[in-house]
Design goal:
The chain is α/β, with parallel strands linked by helices. It has helices at residues 6-16, 41-49, 58-67, 85-97, 118-126, 139-146, 167-177, 193-200, 229-234, 259-269, 274-285, 289-309, and strands at 25-29, 52-55, 77-79, 102-105, 130-134, 157-161, 183-188, 207-212, 220-225, 244-248. Strands 3-2-4-1-5 form a 5-stranded parallel beta sheet, sandwiched between helices. Helix 7 (167-177) crosses helix 8 (193-200), helix 10 packs antiparallel against helix 11 and helix 11 crosses helix 12. The longest helix is centred in the C-terminal third of the chain and has 21 residues, at 289-309.
Length: 317
């Protein structure tokens, strides 16, 4: 057993021990995403008093528990991951109906956010039982907090998680996200970050923050124009290591459009679908595709409004 967190366990009991922890409840506990010291006192206390711990990976969780000086037998741990979550939910519900306190943890961070846990919580609540969240570490909000997102016109952000791994499907999703006025947060694995960055290059000068190895020794958080991400990754082999949070900043709104770009885009939109027209306009003018896409949306909207004002039907929906 580790003694590093002995004082933390005592502090957890002092700070959180007097609170109410009902039996027959599922405790959904956020765990550190890299630095073990990022555990909360309440999480430590609940892990101590838990009758059972359902987890994404029993070996990983047992290692974490031992680091905190917590002793749980293998029989108290239950593997609940993306491949068996639905069927194992019934086993968790049975334990809860027996009055057990059951904790659920994923391998790192907050369960149910691109990690297992959502199906389990849905099943527990459908059975009329309680799921109690214990807040803590999240790579998503951690990256957003330091990304420096500034957008007076679009508050908040869209969490899109992992994009499709197939190039064509990923490109389609990115085309849709290009017109999203809010910041967009993605997750990506190290072996796919280069491919994702290549796909994001269509966003031109739009700022993108890459956050890797959050809270670990080699944490790195850096912001670059989308079209330069590949060059930055290839400049140092270390840049591609670790799990990534990718924050696409809101598109910068320009006060005026280039008249020539607008004229070319209008001519293309009259003959072609919007996606094709934007792609060709970007090739012809050298303009950023996301900006041209926003211009196309505005032109289409204006055309639709004019048709409505004249009492004519519009084919644009």
């Amino acid at each position: 057993m580790s003694t590093s967190f002995a004082s933390a366990l005592n502090a957890a009991k002092e700070a959180a021990g007097a609170q109410n922890y009902p039996q027959g409840a599922l405790y959904v506990v956020a765990t550190p995403i890299g630095n073990l010291a990022d555990i909360t006192l309440r999480a430590l206390h609940v892990l101590q008093i838990a009758d059972n711990i359902a987890c994404e990976d029993t070996r990983h969780t047992q290692q974490m528990l031992r680091a905190y000086g917590l002793d749980k037998s293998g029989q108290q741990l239950l593997a609940v991951h993306q491949h068996n979550e639905a069927e194992r939910a019934s086993q968790v519900i049975e334990l809860l109906q027996q009055g057990k306190r059951v904790v659920y943890v994923s391998d790192a961070g907050t369960p149910g956010v691109s990690d297992p846990g959502a199906r389990l919580c849905a099943a527990v609540q459908a059975a009329g039982l309680r799921a109690m969240p214990l807040p803590g570490a999240s790579s998503v909000t951690t990256a957003v907090s330091v990304a420096g997102i500034v957008s007076p016109d679009a508050q908040g952000f869209l969490f899109a998680g992992f994009l499709p791994t197939k190039a064509a499907e990923r490109a389609t999703v990115i085309d849709k996200l290009a017109s999203e006025p809010r910041a967009v947060v993605l997750l990506e694995a190290p072996h796919r970050i280069l491919e994702l960055s290549q796909a994001l290059s269509v966003l031109g000068d739009r700022p993108v923050t890459l956050a890797r190895e959050i809270s670990k020794q080699f944490e790195q958080i850096t912001t670059h124009p989308a079209h330069t991400l590949v060059a930055w990754l290839e400049s140092d082999s270390q840049h591609s290591r670790g799990e990534f949070v990718v924050v696409i900043h809101p598109a910068t709104q320009t006060a005026e459009h280039d008249p020539k770009e607008q004229q070319i885009l209008q001519l293309l939109l009259a003959e072609l679908p919007m996606k094709t027209a934007v792609k060709l306009a970007a090739q012809i003018t050298g303009g950023a595709r996301n900006r041209l896409y926003e211009m196309a949306l505005a032109l289409k909207s204006g055309s639709s409004d004019s048709a409505d004002d004249s009492g004519e039907d519009s084919d644009n929906h």
